[in-house]
Request: fold
Amino acid sequence: MNSHHSSYGSVLAMAPKGRAVGIATGLFFGATFVGEALCAYVTPWMANLIFGYSLPSTNIKTGGILCIVIAFISYPFFKKTYKLAFPKAGESKAQAIVNL
Reply:
């Protein structure tokens, strides 16, 4: 999990300064921690709902399923964040925000 968080730190450290970094940071870390919280606290409940029981093996399977679902749901947010953090060459920060 540490490498997961440090990768976001690396991406944000390379991002341009100003308003875009604040928006990108919020989107990156918000999605990260919501996903982690859902997988940590909702997984046993979902495993019980899907499989009828909550064993460690079913929690792992359910956690994998939830991670994939959350990844597909969060993709548009990460796409917007990437555009904010790394605007096209010659594009100003204000234009990057408008072009979302």
